[in-house]
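@channel sequence for tomorrow's demo:
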Amino acid sequence: MPYFCAMQLMDGKLASAAIKQKVAQLVQTRAAKGLKAPHLAAILVGTDGASETYVASKVKTCEELGFQSTLLRLDASTDEATLLQHIQQLNDNPDVDGILVQLPLPKHISEAKVIETIHPSKDVDGFHPVSVGRLVQGLESFIPATPYGIMLMLEHFQIPTTGKHAVVIGRSNIVGRPMSILLSSQLPYGNCTVTVCHSKTANLKELTLQADIIVAALGRPGFLTGDMVKEGAVVIDVGITRVPDASKKKGFAIKGDVDFESVAPKSSWITPVPGGVGLMTIGALMMNTLAAAERRS
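structure tokens (generated this afternoon):
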């Protein structure tokens, strides 16, 4: 059977529904054993529109799956010391299994300091240096939610990865770097040869044309176009940018890093935006929170 057949959609709604069902069943199993529900605590600093949407979605998902959730809202003017104090209180609270601080943070607060203050055993976002170090060494670790979600998606749709050439566009600590580590790891949906590209890559198009799998995670709407993709490539779009659009009720449209219209016809599999990786990110976060609760039990 040839590697390339008609384009198929990697539907995040289908894959995330399967993840949520699995997590909900495991939560019920815990309850039957007399164990408490996993508890996720989120901190939101300020009123950024996108952050509000993300956090509301996370809280709603917690309710659906039988998790406990706590949402701590802080004013945008909150100083760093106060935020770190709140994190420390959650670290010390034995009832809380996972802590996430919604990024981005106001400019006067150090993201690095905030991430390092969260205890590694509650670092369900997988950003703490201890989590990252363990991931690099192939040890049990919390995996950043977006790359983890992508790995779960590859598994759900049974996309072959072993021996494939994967090109990751973007080198952020949240997506690009951990994604490259996971795809090259000795995992059932790893074992790729990975090339990491970024804004300083001179021959980017030449590299993407060689790729069997492309992960576009650079935050530039419509960046990856059809002329940059070979026939039969698997294309994963991590981008989620609000682009002004007067025809939309909200005044904006959500655009990915992939120009879907030109890339989809050449792809064997492609993720939509919205309805793709974003939904998997929340599913993966719930998996991490459940894992944190299991370890604490």
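heads up for whoever presents: The radius of gyration is 19 Å.
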